[in-house]
Write a structure and sequence with these properties.
Blueprint lengths: L2 H8 L4 E3 L5 E6 L8 H14 L4 E3 L5 E7 L3 H14 L20 E2 L13 H12 L8 E4 L13 E6 L2 E3 L9 H9 L4 E4 L2 E4 L9 H5 L5 E3 L4 E6 L12 E7 L1 H18 L9 H8 L1 H8 L10 E2 L15
Parallel strand pairs: 5-6, 6-7
Antiparallel strand pairs: 1-2, 2-4, 3-4, 7-12, 8-11, 9-10, 12-13, 13-14
Helix pairs in contact: 2-3, 4-7
Length: about 325
């Protein structure tokens, strides 16, 4: 088997070409970053039986099982099937492993399962997106974080989803202690001020961090039951022009974000330069113009009344001499 044939086979199957020609490594997807102890043991069993015993924890919250022989790929795919089923990963062929693995594992911070600052269950949302977009060959990177602290570094991804809370005040419970105002000024954006001994919220300055709900000693501030999100787009690493994602929509709802992501797959399918090995979304947006991307991304999207959409988005990032 030549290296060219190996490369063609593995790129569709979540294995990768390594610096050791006769060895490969398997990428194991963990949508949302949550896995049970039993499934971790299965990863270990595969590494010990078919690999060299080493497992690398990736930055995208998956596993890479190292040191697998090329000829063992089919057997590894069979052995990984219970993992795929246990993690509820979408696949279109049983015992074929991770088919069409261009879209990267959808990563998430721990979310409100544990963190008091997180505004939603990040793992559940990640799995919902997984069901809509995987399996797929296009190179997308999607990540979710529970609050504006952005522990997951979602602004380095094509789509960064940041949790927001809409704080609601019950004035009858407020004791005018001023704690929420003080904490909003010191920990967040100073969106609260005291007016007639009661806190007043400036919606334009509020980033939905929820600090007021955490700091209030009488629970006068509470989180709205509806879940809202900040959608930051087209962040990237890489050689030519690494940059952070910029905010496009704030106070967005879950359904709209999923629809926008799915629409972007259609947009990329239309405009990607297939002469390249792969072309990241942000470069396609740079080439076609943001307005063309926006036209495709918002097709059929019905945003909620609170959502705010920037008419245009501008990115900066590192610029190298002579590179447009």
């Amino acid at each position: 088997m030549t290296l060219d044939l190996n490369r063609k086979k593995v790129t569709k199957n979540a294995f990768r070409v390594t610096k050791v020609r006769e060895k490969t490594a398997l990428r194991v997807r963990v949508p949302g970053g949550e896995i049970s102890g039993d499934l971790i043991k299965q990863v270990s069993d595969i590494a010990n039986k078919f690999g060299d015993g080493r497992i690398h924890l990736t930055t995208r919250q998956g596993f890479e099982i190292l040191g697998i022989d090329w000829e063992d790929m089919d057997e590894v795919n069979k052995m990984v099937t219970p993992l795929i089923e246990g993690l509820d990963v979408n696949t279109d062929k049983r015992d074929a492993g991770y088919v069409s693995a261009g879209t990267r594992n959808i990563a998430a911070c721990i979310g409100n399962k544990i963190c008091p600052k997180a505004q939603y269950n990040t793992t559940e949302f990640a799995k919902e997106i997984e069901k809509e977009v995987f399996p797929h060959d296009l190179h997308f990177k999607i990540a979710l974080t529970g609050c504006p602290n952005d522990c997951q570094k979602v602004r380095m991804h094509d789509f960064g989803i940041i949790g927001m809370t809409y704080p609601k005040l019950n004035e009858s419970k407020c004791i005018s202690c001023g704690r929420c105002v003080k904490k909003c000024k010191s920990l967040s954006t100073g969106a609260l001020e005291t007016v007639n001994y009661k806190p007043k919220r400036n919606h334009d300055r509020c980033i939905g961090c929820g600090e007021c709900t955490l700091q209030c000693p009488t629970s006068a501030w509470t989180r709205d039951e509806k879940k809202y999100f900040r959608l930051a787009i087209m962040g990237r690493t890489g050689k030519r022009n690494p940059r952070l994602a910029e905010d496009w929509i704030v106070w967005a709802d879950k359904e709209s974000i999923i629809k926008i992501i799915k629409n972007t797959y259609d947009y990329v399918g239309e405009y990607i330069d297939r002469s390249l090995g792969k072309e990241h979304i942000g470069y396609i947006v740079d080439r076609t113009g943001f307005m063309e991307f926006k036209k495709w991304a918002l097709k059929g999207v019905k945003l909620n009344d609170l959502a705010e959409v920037k008419p245009n988005v501008y990115w900066s990032g590192i610029k190298y001499p002579g590179i447009k």
